Amino acid sequence: MKKLMVGMALTATLATAVTPGFGSIGGNQEKAYAATVTYKVMASKLNVRSGAGTTYGIIGSVVKGQTLSVMSKSGSWYKINYNGRTGYVSSDYVQASGTETPPAESTTYTVTASMLNVRSGAGTNYASIGSVTKGQKLSVVSKSGSWYKINYNGRTGYVSSDYVQASATASPKLVVDSFKTLGNAQQVILVTADNYDTKSAKIQTFEKVDGKWKQVLTANGVLGQKGFALSKKEGDMESPTGKYTIGTAFGRYANPGTKLPYRKITANDVWVDDSKSSLYNTWQQKPANGRWTSAENMDIPAYDYGFVINYNESRTPGKGSAIFFHVGTNYTAGCTATSKEQVVSILKWLNPEKNPVIIQSPVSELDKY
Question: What is the pLDDT of residues 79-127, one digit of tens each?
Fold first, then answer.
């Protein structure tokens, strides 16, 4: 199966601002941070997305000079109040200045007074724009002195902190916490897509430390041109779903620091995709000498770095071959790909002693695992 990167390059979706790229080591958990009260858009036009990443849908846009109501920060993304909805914008194109501090995302704010005025500014001299009642949960943007700045029915309001109780909540569960098929795996690469037909993917890595799962990385990725496969076949341009172990790491350069077995690609290296060959779905070297009629050249930029996904280990003819995790940002012919930086990061992180696995699935079917 030819895994050469095909199709047109993805283009930036902003008119003048470059859409942010991949995530980074450190996870995407939202967290409290020492930030500031005024957040202004610096790009001519900046997309507002439904989640913290470019794989999420666009729900609108903001323009240069516009002031944003920032609730928290998730990696390189600001969570904002956008026309009464929750949205996310890249922090690369937002400038912050001032003195207020947004709250921790894991804190719950509850009204303790029977009725509490919501005012247009941080003080009793400001007009009341409405009220909230006892037990009501508030969407707190920041704190200014003894006043909480809140999102009130799509507007900015202020309530006295004397009548609001803030309490930390339990950290949200990670998706891997609900998986029941991991066995002794202590490292998981999770590749998800919104549905079977999309080529865009979200890549997350998790590691179990002291008996508890922790998220390590999140990144954008791509699948086969036609998305995920219900039943993978040779040449279908689809990536297989399922849970697989991880095989040999490879690359056209020296080992970047992975603990996996590593094989440096040479000009003669090929992967046999001839279903009629006894060497189907194996790594071989040219010349063919009649051993196969079709094989994929391994000495290509897409394979600067990567690893083998142990799919079709029984080498069933026609079920699919050469399924890798490799470098790429467009779409593949059945592999999973992401930026070179992220591939190298994942290779360095993977530890065969932790029995790593990769799970590939539409979000709607994660309950299978």
Answer: 888 887 889 999 888 887 655 555 655 678 999 999 999 999 988 999 9
d(CA 116, CA 30): 29
**At residue 319, what are phi and psi to the nearest 5 degrees?**
-85, -10
Burial 58-74 (b: 16+ CB within 10 A, else e): ebebbeeeeebbbbbbb
Rounded to the nearest 5°, which phi and psi values hold at 343? -60, -45
CB 220 within 8 A of CB 22: yes
Q: What residues form DSSP beta bridges with 6?
A: 331
- The pLDDT tens digits of the residues spanning 303-357 come to 999 999 999 999 999 999 999 999 999 999 999 999 999 999 999 999 999 999 9
101 near 109, Cβ under 8 Å?
no
- Greatest CA separation for the chain: 89
Q: How far apart are CA 349 and CA 246, in angstroms?
A: 13
Amino acid at residue number 183? G
- Encode pLDDT of 193-208 as tens digits: 999 999 999 999 999 9
| pLDDT of amino acid 102 | 58
Q: How many angstroms separate the first and last alpha carbons of the chain?
A: 28
Q: Where are the alpha helices (DSSP H) in the chain?
A: 340-349
Q: How far apart are CA 52 and CA 220, in angstroms?
A: 11
Q: How would DSSP label each residue in 284-344?
A: EES--TTS-S-EEE--SGGGSEEEEE---TT--TTS----EEEE-SSBBSS-EEE-HHHHH
